[in-house]
Structure formats: C-alpha cells, structure tokens
Amino acid sequence: MIHSHAVRDHVPVRVALTGAGGGYGRTLLAQLQHTPELIPAVLIDPDVDGVRRMLAELGHDAAGLAAPATGEEFRAAVAAGRTVLLADAAPLGWDGVDVLVEATGHVSSGTAYAEDALAHGVHVVMVSKEVDTVAGVALAARAAAAGVRYLPGDGDQPANLLRLVDWISATGLEIVAIGKSGEYDLVFDPGKGTVTQAGVTIDAPALAEVLDLGDDPLAALRRRADLVAGLKRRAAADLCEMTVVAMRTGAVPDEESLHYPVARIAELADIYATRQDGGLVGRDGVIDVFSALRLPGEASFAGGVFAVVRTGDPATWEMLRGKGHVVSRDGRYACLYWPYHAMGVETPLTIHAAVTGAGVAPRPRPTVLLAARTATALEAGTPFRVAGHHHEIDGVAPVMVAPDAGLAPYYLLGDARLRRRVEAGELVRLDDLENVAPVPLAAYLAAAPPAPQPKGTDQ
User: What does pTM read for this prediction?
Assistant: First the structure.
C-alpha cells in the first residue's frame, strides 16, 4: 500500500463552505470524506434541505447535522462537533472556523462573505472567480493586513494554471503563452462528418481537409473556425478565469476576446508560437483559450491548462519529442500541459496551503480588467442579470482590457441597470449604471487603478 500523505497528520482544520449545494460544493464535500484532518464545520446555502439531501447521498449521518437559528445555538453545535447547515451567514460565529471556501459564484454575497471572514482572522480560499475579478485585489490586501491568506482554489483552472506556471518558471524555461482549453472538446467524427460539443452536433465534413495544420497554419485555423461557427465556443467563464491568472502573473491577452483557435493538443506548440515564427501570438507573455479538437476515442483535454515555452537547445527537445512531448515542427517551442481540472477533488490542496503557508499564489494586481462591451445599443433602464451555467450577461460581451477605474467590471453589472443609453460596441462604465451592489463596488474602487490621464495632462 502506498503510504499516507503527511498532511493527514495535520491538526484538524475547520472549514466553512459557501455555495455548498452547487456542483463544486458536492465535489469538495465528497473529497473531504477522505481527508479527516479537514472538517466541514459549516455549510452555507439558501437551499438547506437540498444540502441535507446531498449529504445523505454522500453517506453523512443525519444525527451529526445541525441547523441553528441563533449564534448561541451555532456555537453549541460547533463545540459538539456537528456539521452546521445555514441558509446564510447571519448566525455564523467565525471563531469556529479556520478557512472559508467561497463558492457561491455571486459577486455581492461572495465578497461580503470573504470580507467578513478576513475581518475575523479566517483564511479565504476563493473558488468564485467572478468575485476575484471584481474584488480580488482588495480582498488580498485585506488578507495581508490581517495576517491571513487569500488564495484561488485548486481544482479550477486559474489555480491549476498558476501552479503550472510556477513550476515552469522555477525551471528557468522562457514562457511565451499560457492558457486553458474551453470547457468542452470539439469531437470530430470523420465517418459521419460531424462535430459534437457538449451534446450539440453540427455537420462539418470539410473539417477532414484541415485536420492537419499544413503549410499555412493560420489559414487552417481560420478554416476550422468557419466550419464550427455554428457552435458556441466562447464563454464568459473562460475570460473570467484567465483574468484571475493575468492579475497574478502579468500575462496579457493578445486580443480582448481571446483567440480561441480550434486546435489539437499536438499542435499547441506550433499555434502558440510568435507570429514571426508562423504562430498566432504577437508577443511573449500572452494568455489565451483554445477549443480542443479531437477524434472519437482520443483523450480529452478536459478543461486543462497549458504553457508554451521556448526550447533553447533543439537537441534536448528533439530527445524529449521522442519521449512524447509536444514540440513545434521547427523545434523552437514546446507545450507543457495538465489535461484536467478536478474541481473540489483538488481543493484540499489549497485549504492546506492556506493554513501552512506552503505554495501561496502570487498576490493579484489590477493589471487587466474583465469589462463589458455592448453587443447592441442598449437603452436606459436595461437590466442586467448573471445567468446560466457559464454565468453570462445578456446584451454585453466579456472582454479583457487595460484597467481603468471608470470602467465597470463585467460581473459588477449583475442586478444593476443602465441609467443612460449605451451605443453598440462601447465599454460599459460605472457612470452608466445604477443599482450597483455596494459591497463589491466599494471593494473594486478601493483597489482600482486611476483612470488614464488625457494626453498632455500633468502627472
């Protein structure tokens, strides 16, 4: 039997989980059954009964659960070692918690939960990437001032990509591009001439003609994109995740909506070469998302992460090509990747890191802003709502742009409405909005960079 990991001997860590009833919450709670040193002390979700049913499915003893209505009842339940179920944090006494895992995906409540935890000396593992893109800079500053940690959660692509970048940077390899694949592969069936993505199938028999990049990779990529244009490949969640990484690495988007090339895994080192070497990117340090193309039966990228590096010594990487590594055809670039993300199954890594201080992620900085660009002209009074699996907002597209305190972060639009007409193609500004959630707005403004000065203005 392989030996148990040393973290199993850690003193008990009491965990509060918000958004406990969601898919991420379930994967984490299922994994915590195998990490006895991590105790799910408090589970917060508006659907308390749904969380209770989920815990029963996972094999939790109903006698070990409590639903206190007052702070006194809460403290008694925690002291008795019971798992507390709450609809919100009103009765929550933070003295019974060591780490908050914030997974509501809701900017207003998620920011408030994180601020409250930090104010009480509780570490925060931020799974809600939407919160991070709006309030992450301010929350990290609060954590530093309080002497606790604010970390992106392992199991989602941002933290996984940060771990990969850290490992590659430590080796001394020169990074050209980093990123992830979209959530769902494009599966091409040559026999049927169809492409299937997340249960949606379209006819694209001509894709067989560009399964290889050929002599003109960029032309092949354009052709592939045209052939799968009937599928929705861009998602707000992708740009949100890449903003989280950009804020911690200094990486920049090549295009504000990202390239999204339709690419096979073995081609990534060629595709993410610089343009002078026939690739897609215009500079070093680019962050991007690609749509993974594969045949039936081939391994999935499964929402994994990648980094493309310069090889330096061609002989070394020719040898590594022979061992199965992805190396560009000219030998100048290589792609290193982790073809998975396992959601809450990996999050215990971050909980341990929060408590021990090991492997702390870089502190976020306001280097890139996830903003909202209107798809059509929008009239005064237009309401905005974050909806759907990918947490998108009708009427506006997410874009990664240079920071500007006057611009509205994409997820700050949730539940706000326009106070004036905004023309098609414009970036939504804070002054365009009313009914903005006050807690995340204050956090954003506390750490936002100043608005750019007009040319000729004294600095």
Answer: 0.93
59-63 long-range contacts, CB within 8 A, separation 24+? 59/33
**Number of helices followed by number of strands (H, E) in the chain:** 12, 23
Closest CA to 293 of 196, 367, 151, 200: 196
Q: Is the dihedral of CA 109, 110, 115, 121 positive or negative?
A: positive
pLDDT digits (tens, 9 = 90+) for 189-222: 999 999 999 999 999 999 999 999 999 999 999 9
- The predicted pLDDT at position 442 comes to 95
Q: What is the β-pairing status of strands 396-401 and 65-66?
A: unpaired
> Beta strand 286-294 with 174-181: parallel, antiparallel or unpaired?
parallel
Residue among 81, 83, 88, 103 nearest 28 (CA): 103
Grade residue 451 by pLDDT with cuts at 50, 70 and 90. low
pLDDT of residue 458: 43
Q: Indicate the residue type of 170.
A: A
Whose tokens are 């798809």? That residue is 375
